[in-house]
Amino acid sequence: MNLNNLISRLRQFRSLHHWVGIAVVLFMFISSVTGLLLGWKKNVDLLQPPTRKGASTDVAEWITYERVVLSANRALDSVRHEHPGIERIDARPDKGIVKVVYLNYWEVQVDGKTGKALSVAPRHADWIEHIHDGSILSEGFKLFYTNYIGWGLLIMSVTGFWLWYGPRKIRQVKQLPEN
């Protein structure tokens, strides 16, 4: 390979790496910080409440979802005084509980057998996840955001490799005897 071509290509890759890095640095910073927090969510109670244990793991003994929701709403009312709507109901038969997760990033853990609220707490990991994947703004932004970061990271990786490898290749070519 021609030395001038190698040097020219290295300059092009350096410029591309520079401008793509500037264009994605903020999004990559947000994604990396939120990703680190999400990696710890099961280990830090502030991020996601620990899963409690209910009275029975036999779902045949459990109360209806209607009663679970009534119990969860009463428990949430005692601390929040609002009903933002339910995002999902997450049954954990192995733990004997049902988690009622609300749209305002709160959860109530209800004993599947007794209907007693075992935990009422915010789920910070959920809004952090929505920031992490861009869905906090909209699903359209999420698609743009994930593609922007994905392509940016791919370009940064390829150009970064060339910025590491190119100078080595140039030194190698310079050491070859001229024909």
Q: In terms of topology, how is this protein built?
A:
Elements: H1 3-39, H2 65-77, E1 86-92, E2 97-102, E3 106-111, E4 117-122, H3 124-133, H4 139-175
Antiparallel strand pairs: 1-2, 2-3, 3-4
Helix pairs in contact: 1-3, 1-4
What structural keywords apply?
four-stranded antiparallel β-sheet; 4 helices; 2 domains; alpha+beta; 179 residues; 54% helix; elongated
Summarize the entry for a quick read:
By secondary structure, the chain is of the alpha+beta class. 54% of the residues lie in helices and 14% in strands.
Molecular structure report:
The protein is an alpha+beta fold and 179 residues long. The protein folds into 2 domains: 1-47 and 123-179, no CATH class; 49-122, no CATH class. The protein is built from 4 helices and 4 strands; from the N terminus they run H-H-E-E-E-E-H-H. A hairpin with a 3-residue loop joins strand 2 and strand 3.
Number of helices in the DSSP assignment: 4
Structural class: alpha+beta
Helical amount: 40-55%
Residues in β-strands, percent: 5-15%
Number of strands: 4
Largest sheet descriptor: 4 strands, antiparallel
Shape: elongated
